[in-house]
Structure formats: C-alpha cells, structure tokens
Amino acid sequence: MLRTLCVRPAGVQAVLLRRWTHNIPAIDQPLNFINGERVEAANTDKTQEFELVEPATGKVLRKVQSAGKGDVNRAVAAAREAFDVWSDMSGMERGKLMTKAAQIVKENEDDFVKAEVIDTGKPIWEARYDIQGCTETIEYFAGVAPTIMGTHLPLPGGSFAYTRREPLGVCGGIGAWNYPYQMAAWKSAPALACGNTMVFKPSQLTPITAVMLAEAYVQAGVPKGVFNVIQGEAETGTLLNLHPDIAKMSFTGSVPTGAKIMANCAKGIKQVTLELGGKSPLIIFGDADLENAAKGAILANFMTQGQVCSNGTRVFVHTSVLPQFLDILLEKTKRMKIGDPFQEDTMVGATISKAHAEKVLGYIEIAKNEGAEILYGGERVIPDDPKLAGGYYLGPCILVGCHDDMTVVKEEVFGSVMSVLPFDTEEEVIRRANNTCFGLAGGVFTKDLSRAHKVVSKLQAGSIYVNNYNVYPVGVPFGGHKMSGIGSENSLESVNHYTQVKSVYVEANDVDCPY
Ligand SMILES: NC(=O)C1=CN([C@@H]2O[C@H](COP(=O)(O)OP(=O)(O)OC[C@H]3O[C@@H](n4cnc5c(N)ncnc54)[C@H](O)[C@@H]3O)[C@@H](O)[C@H]2O)C=CC1
Ligand SMILES: NCCCC(=O)O
Fold it and tell me: Which segments constitute the Aldehyde dehydrogenase domain (predicted)?
C-alpha cells in the first residue's frame, strides 16, 4: 500500500537515524537553518534552551538552542534578500525546483519517517502516510506555480486594465507539534510557489523534519534564504510575529495563541492565516452503514493519539442504532495495538508529552465526575518493553452517558477521548452540533445523500465529511469557521492567501479631464 524509498543522492545530508539511541545525526546537528545552512543560535544563553524529549521513551534526546532576536533578524534578512531573486524567477522555474525538492524528500523518505516518529511518537505507518501526502503538497504547488496569473479587463475606447497577482514578501510560519512535517510543507509549498520566501518556526516539541525539508529545498537548488527554520518557544514566535519585515503570518496551533498572533499582526497591518482548534461533531444517522461509521469514528478520534485538530470528538449517534454501533466500535477499538510506534502493526503510539498525557487523563477524570461512563480505555498503558516505560501511552477512550454540557463535550481535549451522544431528530442534532464556538470540521454518515447535503448546508464548519472522516486531499481547501480560524490551507484557495492583487489601468486616449 505505502512505498518506502531510501536512496540518498550524493550531497544530501545523510541522516542515518537509529532507534532509541542519542546518536542521531539529524537530531544532533544544529537545528536552526538560516540562509542555506544549519547554524547554532548566535545570541543564546542557557536560559534560552529547551529540551527535546522523545515521546516513545520519555528520554531527553538533546537540548536545543532557541533563536533569539539576532537569529530571528538574520533569518528574516536572509529571506528578504532571497525574495528579490526568488520572486523574479518564472513560476515554471520555481515549480521545477520545488518538484526536485519533493523528489529528494521521496528518495530520503525513510529518514523523514523515522525522524517524524522520534519527534511525535505516532505510529510509523501514520508518519509514512503524512510524509508521502505532504510531499504531494509540494508537487501540487510546484504545478500551481506557473499558473498563477492576473486578469485583463477591456475598457471603453481601447483602454484596458489588468491585474497582477504578486507575492507578499517574507512570510512567517509557526506550527504545532501533531503534524510537524505537514505544517512545514502546507505552509512553505504555497508560499514559495507564489514567489514568497519564508521563515518557519516548528513547535519546540517537534523541531526536526522542518529542518530536513529546508535541506531538501537547498539541495534541489532553491536559493539559500528562501526557506529558513528557526527553533524556539513562544518568545521566538513572538519575535518572528512582530518583525517589521514579515508581511504575513500563517499559524497553526491553539486559539489563545492564534488570538495573540492576530493581535500582533494587527499592529503591523499584516495578513494572517489561522488554523486553530476544534470540537467537531460526527453525526451517525439510523440508516448509516454502521461498519463504515465505526471506522469513521475511529479515524475521527484515535489517529495520532487523538491529537488532531479536525477530530470529530462529539459522536452523535441516532438512538435507533446506538447499541449496534457501540458493539462494532468497541470490537474495533479493542483490536488497536498500543505501544512501540516503530512497529508496523501499532495503532496507538505515545502521547506527545507527560504534561499533555496528564491533561488528557485529567479530562477523563472530570468526565467521570460529571457522570460519564467509560465504555473502554482511558488509562495509562505501560508497554512490556522496558525501553518504552518512560513513554506516555494512553488507551483510546470511549465515553458513553455523555451530555452536551459536560466539560469533555465542550472543550477541546486534543487526545484519544471520544464522547458518544445519542440523538433523536435531524433538527435536534444540527442544533446541538452547532452549539460550540469552534467550526473546524464535521461529519455525516447516512445512505440518504439528500439528507446528507441538507445537513452539510446547515453545519457551521470549514470541512465536512460525508461517509468518511479526516482525509485531506491537497486540492481541497482546509480551514476553520468561527473560532477555528481564518483563511484556508491547501488548494488554489491558498494562492489568494499568499498573494496580493495589483490593478493596473492603461489609458489608450487623451486624458479626459476639465483641467
Ligand atoms: N486547525 C489546525 O490545522 C490545527 C490546529 N491545532 C491546534 O493546536 C493546538 C495544539 O498545538 P500546540 O502546539 O499545543 O499549540 P500552541 O498554540 O501552544 O503552540 C503552537 C505554536 O505556537 C508557538 N507559540 C506559542 N505561543 C506563542 C506566541 N505567543 N507567539 C508566537 N508563537 C507562539 C509554539 O511555540 C508552537 O510553535 C490545539 O488547540 C489544536 O487544535 C493543531 C494542529 C492543526
Ligand atoms: N492541519 C490539518 C490537519 C490535521 C491537523 O494538523 O491536526
């Protein structure tokens, strides 16, 4: 089903990742990537370091230096200088270089996959799927690059106007930790295709694959400085956000941080794209194929240890099929193997950190106190392999007996916790589904497609799945409504978010004017 290639072209950073060791070149080298090379942060003292912890084992792999003000300035200056060259190239030239970068990632796919597993703790088959899918994103936008164009408007008397769709300049990107390579690819590919350059800050929890992507771009011939990576926490992100030469911010993360980024962008009248949190509904009608619906509910809740923004964590099930649905769901969830993320048959890897695992377990505790019943899971699992004893493995949790005003049903948990909520009528379930400040995604399982489309039209969310869940083809826009965000990633829509329109009026006659 999924390919693995591991052919390294000469000159590419040989990243021979070994499991469970600290001796990993891709990790041990400097992780800031400025103007075409890995560099140590220059003006950093000990207080500006953070620890890189491997979720699968809980081991500290290394300390990483945060980029300080001087480093952020250097990265933005490199991107500013590269902008003149990059934006002057034809879309065809940019597209060819991006296609080559995608090819280099494919040739080194195994290394990218291993690095992503080490960083995130997610099962290796999921990491492989992410790397492959998001490399397609780079290929897609490489194809889009030569097609970006303006319009022509004929005006009376032979005059005319035309529009140019121009890049914005240096764009800032900030990512979350659940899909580190995806965030770097989803942001850099459209930005670069449109002629922008970028400074990207991955989450401090998952710093590695963004740097590997930066190396692939340079190896492909993308000019130095076009894509830079800086490491750090909130302070570094704020420095990037506030830098006067940053024209636009593209952010993926939590609502509170998104609000800060937007407020900072307002100070400089900068454009902003926000991909934020969610508490999405998945609606299973009485006529649904229950086998598919149960698979959909698992895709909507338990991938990447439940740490997926678009998850459909409020699973509304029609009362007529609730017992049958729960039987199928339970049987499938019990079969999910928990443990070593490097084993191909593992379905549940490690939660990102001890602190996050405790937060997830805390939500389950609150749910129990508020009257929910645990049908399955919801506890810490310690794998037999002693190497994994320090990792935080949680059993995927199915909660029943839930109601809409429980904390776990209202707030984003960002972990493997599914709340099952019975419903009786279509009108009732639409009202309850929309009763949230979020609007990222939603799902409908039914064989009645006219009902499906009617419900889709009423759901307040940016992505709705009919008879499936959590798939992200690159040609389809992805973005949130309400407090889940602003703007879209992927698809031709994102070209609008990485370009600005210039209108040009051309007069064919004498100036018609009383002066
Ligand atoms: N809609 C989407 O596409 C996605 C949304 N998310 C959301 O992200 C959240 C989890 O990710 P986290 O990394 O914990 O979110 P977070 O908001 O804590 O951090 C996200 C990124 O922002 C940086 N950051 C933190 N404070 C900052 C500040 N004041 N200024 C600039 N940068 C700052 C962090 O270092 C990190 O790189 C969840 O709420 C989840 O729903 C996660 C993935 C995808
Ligand atoms: N960024 C959208 C895909 C899902 C996620 O990242 O959580």
Answer: 46-504
